[in-house]
Amino acid sequence: MSWTRLDDLWTERMEGLELSLAARWHYLALIQRCSRLDLRDGAVRRVDARRASDVDDPEAALAELAAAGLLTVDDSTVTLVNVLDHLPTEASLKRTLQNRERQRRSRAHRNGDHSLCPPDGGCEALGGAPAGVTRDVTRHVTRDVGTGRDRTGQDRHGLRDSAQRDVSPPQGHPQDAPALAEEVHSDDAAFFDA
Predict the structure, then answer these.
(1) Are 83 and 49 in contact (CB under 8 A)?
(2) Which fold has domain 10-85?
(3) The whole model's pTM is what?
(4) Looking only at Cα atoms, what is the longest distance across the chain?
(5) CB-CB contact of 82 with 63 (8 Å)
(6) Using one digit for the tens of pLDDT, what is the confidence trace for 89-115?
(7) H or E segment at 44?
(8) Where does the chain hold its CATH 1.10.10 domain(s)?
(9) Residues 50, 58 contacting (CB under 8 angstroms)
(10) Which of 39-45's residues contact partners 24+ apart within 8 Å by CB, and which partners?
């Protein structure tokens, strides 16, 4: 699938050139053709340029667009002058290709095909480090950020400075509920007995 880039003022600029509706539609169809076929030079065979849209008189539309300076026309080719203004940038195309390849590797990996996994990329099947290698270090941060209503008087984890931090689950975490019930204040005992 291709996409065509038009800035916010494109319609107003086209109207400012006093082009007919047929010429504007034909120009947009030519831009989209260049985008779909990745014609970064903007050169379209003249026969294809005539067929780009469904306007009644494509030759008149091409002549009108050429007179406005939006394209050049010779015997065999129509060339859009500013086609790169409407096509994806090289960086965007590169990012799209990288994302496509990354997704392909991910799907293959999930389906048990590790032939596309990078050898140093953390695939356990190839002997790499597990994907969740930092999970134990950040468990208390990512799993349960707390509500701030745990009545400790401090932050959720009871830590006053970074030197006291460890990798154990935070106090007050649901998995510690039985141990926590023994440490509650007397006014909270009814809550845990229920």
Answers:
(1) no
(2) Arc Repressor Mutant, subunit A (1.10.10)
(3) 0.53
(4) 94
(5) no
(6) 888 878 988 888 889 888 888 888 888
(7) strand 43-45
(8) 10-85
(9) yes
(10) 39/83, 40/83, 40/84, 40/87, 41/79, 41/83, 42/71, 42/79, 42/80, 42/81, 42/82, 42/83, 42/84, 43/77, 43/78, 43/79, 44/77, 44/78, 44/79, 44/80, 45/76, 45/77, 45/78
